[in-house]
Every structure is written in C-alpha cells, then in structure tokens.
Design goal:
The chain is an alpha/beta fold. It is built from 16 helices and nine strands. It has one domain: TIM Barrel. Helix content is 46%, strand content 10%. Strands 1, 2, 3, 4, 5 and 6 form a six-stranded parallel beta sheet that branches. The N terminus is likely disordered.
C-alpha cells in the first residue's frame, strides 16, 4: 500500500496516536472549568449505565505497560478502575487501532497483540472488571459493580481483506469495526484522505467492502462510521441492514473537520436507528481550537518526518512507541489550548437536536491528554456532563439515554438482526 499523506490525514492521524499515548504530567491539564454537580445530577448519573464508546488505552497497555488498577495519582490516564468507579462508568469500548504506516507487514499480529492486552486486564482484575460480549453482559457486569470492557476495531486494515479474520476478531470480543481509520484501505475510503488506497479518487466502499458490512450484520457486529469518507458513509448506509454507530464523532456545524458529521449525516444515522457518540477531544469540538491545531500539526508532522529520517540514517529501527514518545515530548514543548467545557455540551446538544435524543451518546477518544475538553480530566469527571445537560433542560430519561442507554439499545438491535440473519434465533429480542 502506498504511504498516504496530506494535511487532513496527518492532523487526524497524529491526534489519534497521541490520544492513545498519554502525556507528561506538566503538559496534561490546564485550569479545569468548574461544573457544579448537585444532588439531583448525581442521583441521575448514578442511576445510569454510562457507556464510553471509544478509548485508545490498549496502545498504552502495550507500549508502556499501563495497568487499569494503577492508583498512582500522577498518571494521566482518562480511565483507571478507581476513576471509572468515581464517575460511575459502566462500560468502555477499547479501540484496537493499528497504524497502517507502522505495521504494513503485520496488521493482524498487531491487532491480536492489542486485543490480548484487554484480555489481560480482565485476568488481572476479574473482581472489578468483566469482558462483555453483549448488551446483557454489560448490564450483568453493572449489577456486579464491575467495569465492562469491550473492544472496537478502529480501521479495517487488520482483517487483511479476509472475512475469516473478521470472524476471529468477533470471537475474541470485538463488537464494532470502523471500515477505516485516518488511512484508506483497499475496500473503504477514509475521510482524512484525498484519494483512495488504490491511487484513484474516493469511491466509497468497493464490492468487497459491501460484503464486509453484510458480514458484520450477520455476525451481530456494529458498523462504526467515524473516520470514513462521506461516500463510504453513504455506501454503508445503503448497504447495512442494522443500525450503525459513530463511536467518536461530532457535528461539522460546530467544528468543520473531516471526522465530524454534517447535519444530513446525523439525520441519516437517526433514520437508520443508530447512535452518534460525541468525542471529548478539543479540536473536534471547537472551531477555534481546530483552526489552531492545523498549523500546529503541520509543524509536528515535519518534526516527526525529520525524526524518522534521523533514525533511519543512524540505522535504528523504530516503532509506534518511539514515535508516540517523540510526539509527546514535542507537544510538551508546543502546547495547544483546551476547548471550553461548554463546547462539549454544545456538541451533545446539537447532535441531540438534529439526530434526536434517542440517537446521541458519548465516545471519549482521549486518554489523559491536553486535547481533552476543559474540566473533564478523567472518567471521574463524567458526572459534570450530566449536570450540564440537566441545566440545559434535559430530563433524567433523556440524559440516561445519552450516557449509555442508546448504545445498549443499538447493541441489542444489532445482536437481534444478526441472530435473525444467521437463523440462530429469529425471535430474539
């Protein structure tokens, strides 16, 4: 596959890598914006099953040996078991993301290594976590006061154009897949690429790409439309027989970046019965931050390219962890502002108004990094979202849907349609 380039891909790709990598303590947080969580908001939040549809922590499990049980107050992770408990986080989808530029010859191996780290966390912390394969298992984990761990594959490169690998990932617990990350592949185009992976103009899903969507429907695996091009999105919506999700997206009306969705796209997901999970990452929330990030990441991309060239000249073999460390160090010296907390609530409010309350959710997409919105430094701060939505006039039922109820509903719908398609149990509800 060719080496994909271009500013749009570079900005989004680097952000995706940095979100997963963590940052030095001196860089992590600005001045937090206070949001009062009163007794009413706390009661509503504690009564919900909160589902975070997207976090990149497995990269940290693998690269740095991070453990969910860490109680180090200096760690910069969005999710730890203590922080999840403090914020009443009930379930999290961990991203299985394989950078196509770094792992060209072994996409599947890298994906399996990342999947294994999630299984390891359950083995280490079985008294506080559970590997969940279904909506029912999320609810069972919640009853047992355990954090449900799930997985979503961020980008289709790891199936290596082989539907048998898709089945294997499903067997291991992957419950959604995004056709692309920031890089296009042979069967689907990414929103951050000007061309498809075959060197031509974007053409959405190929015939094989449509077979992938159909196979996911049959398995009961959710199709995630974050990161895909508009044409790929349209092809997915035309092909799928089951509701889709956007695991970590926002509204272009408020921040016009490729990964966000137009109002027409938001309406299409609603018509499909799906859910759009709003990311907490600053540049996808706020137009001003997005504008500031573009020249910043032009400079970062140039610095990364120079670093790679220097390492190659020196005969050094580098990998994902080396590049992430370089990026963290560079960003520690070249900080970006954080979006105000209001930007996050504005995004959720906009998606809820356009797509509807029944089609809105949350997908953090950060792991203790400077790009997170002000005032939300870890999962412990999630009750602030409930408090802010309550102030905007959302009632308890609507808030519970946004926090996780909608994701549980979509999971059940996808599971049911999969069972009906396979003929396993057509009456499953």
């Amino acid at each position: 596959m060719r080496n994909l380039s271009g500013l749009r891909k570079g900005v989004l790709g680097v952000l995706g890598a940095v979100f997963s990598a963590g940052v030095p303590a001196a860089f992590a947080y600005g001045q937090a914006q206070d949001q009062v969580v009163n007794d009413q908001a706390k009661a509503i939040h504690d009564a919900a099953i909160v589902v975070d549809a997207h976090e990149g922590t497995p990269q940290r499990f693998l690269a740095d040996g991070y453990d969910l049980g860490s109680d180090d107050p200096n760690n910069q992770e969005f999710i730890s078991l203590d922080r999840a408990h403090a914020g009443n986080l009930g379930a999290v989808f961990f991203s299985i993301r394989v950078d196509p530029d770094l792992y060209k010859d072994h996409y599947a191996k890298r994906a399996l290594d990342l999947i294994d780290t999630v299984h390891e966390q359950v083995e280490r912390h079985g008294e506080r976590t559970a590997l969940a394969m279904s909506a029912d298992e999320i609810e069972e984990a919640h009853r047992q006061k355990k954090l449900a761990l799930l997985m979503g594959m961020e980008g289709g490169h790891p199936i290596e154009n082989d539907l048998r690998l898709l089945h294997e990932y499903y067997r291991l617990g992957v419950r959604y897949m995004t056709p692309t990350w920031s890089n296009s592949n042979e069967w689907a185009d990414a929103g951050a690429d000007a061309e498809n992976a075959n060197g031509g103009k974007q053409e959405g899903l190929t015939d094989f790409g449509k077979k992938v969507v159909e196979e996911m429907n049959q398995l009961g695996m959710m199709v995630d439309v974050s990161h895909v091009s508009d044409k790929t999105f349209a092809d997915v919506m035309e092909t799928t027989k089951a509701p889709v999700i956007a695991s970590h997206s926002g509204a272009r009306a408020l921040a016009d970046v490729p990964r966000n969705m137009s109002d027409d796209m938001l309406k299409a997901v609603a018509k499909n019965g799906g859910v759009v999970n709003v990311a907490f990452a600053s540049m996808f929330l706020d137009a001003n931050i997005a504008k500031a990030a573009i020249p910043q990441h032009q400079r970062l991309q140039a610095a990364v390219a120079e670093f790679k060239a220097q390492q190659k000249t020196a005969g050094n073999v580098i990998g994902d962890a080396d590049i992430q460390k370089f990026e963290r160090d560079w960003l520690g010296k070249n900080k970006l502002p954080r979006a105000p907390f209001k930007s996050l609530i504005d995004q959720i409010d906009h998606v809820a108004k356009i797509a509807g309350v029944d089609h809105t959710g949350i997908g953090g997409d950060f792991d203790g990094v400077d790009f997170s919105v002000e005032g939300v430094n870890s999962a412990a701060d999630l009750p602030k979202v409930t408090a802010a939505l309550l102030e905007r006039g959302y009632d308890a039922d609507a808030i519970k849907k946004i926090l996780g109820g909608n994701m549980l509903r979509v999971m059940r719908d996808v599971e049911r349609i999969g069972a009906q398609t396979r003929g396993d149990n057509p009456s499953v509800k």
